[in-house]
Specification:
Strand order of the largest sheet: 1-2
Helix content: 40-55%
Number of helices: 7
Number of strands: 4
Number of domains: 1
Order of helices and strands: HHEEHHEHEHH
Distance between the termini: 29 Å
Length: 212
């Protein structure tokens, strides 16, 4: 209980600090997105939160407004034709995730935790139930993100989320926090349009999802 209180306090304090310190970068990215293509600055997507509640995750828009709606990136005939020039940079550097600092501040997310699943990603949600990974706030980054990220099959990804729950504490959060910087710098496990896929060893047919 004490750790949960401390974790929420740190989420509020660090997200507020991040919003303040990163405000110049936010302004630059907003200008770049606006100049590069027409459309809204932010992209909202329905995700699964704590206890399988739903919330709208925020990202900087990386795709053109004429992209087919409600179609996962990997199902598009040619995803690259829809991703903007600035969008490619944002995705490669994970800067498109920065608006989620607001999600953290208001309590939808935590800095560290399992990445939030899409609301209709039933396979991943069901697997995470086995490890109680749906019982905590989803995170901006987490144990699975520094151990494979988009490349991970759903079964392995869920087990890693379960490992985080089992060992959740200050030491684990610090390890995930600093490990994230190394993963981003190396672009480890980044697969366009993916994050969690069914492997041959997983039940059901092979699928890829966009859960970055």
């Amino acid at each position: 209980m004490l750790f949960k209180i401390m974790k929420r306090f740190m989420d509020i304090a660090l997200s507020l600090l991040g919003i303040i310190l990163l405000s110049p970068l936010y302004i630059l990215l907003v200008i770049a997105i606006r100049v590069d293509s027409k459309g809204p600055i932010l992209f909202k997507q329905k995700r699964v939160g704590v206890q399988k509640s739903h919330f709208n995750i925020l990202k900087f828009r990386t795709m053109r407004v004429d992209t087919p709606k409600d179609t996962p990136t990997h199902l598009l005939a040619d995803p690259d034709q829809y991703i903007t020039k600035v969008g490619k940079f944002l995705r490669k550097t994970s800067l498109d995730e920065l608006p989620q600092i607001w999600n953290i501040f208001v309590g939808d997310m935590s800095i560290i935790g399992p990445r939030p699943a899409l609301w209709n990603q039933y396979d991943l949600i069901a697997e995470r139930d086995k490890y109680h990974a749906n019982d905590v706030r989803p995170g901006l980054t987490g144990w699975a993100q520094i151990n494979g990220r988009d490349e991970l099959p759903i079964g392995i990804k869920s087990k890693l989320d379960g490992e985080y729950i089992k060992h959740m504490g200050i030491r684990m959060d610090i390890r995930c926090f600093f490990g994230t910087f190394l993963s981003v710098l190396r672009s480890d496990g980044v697969v366009e349009g993916g994050t969690g896929r069914k492997s041959n060893s997983d039940q059901g047919n092979n699928k890829e999802y966009i859960i970055k």
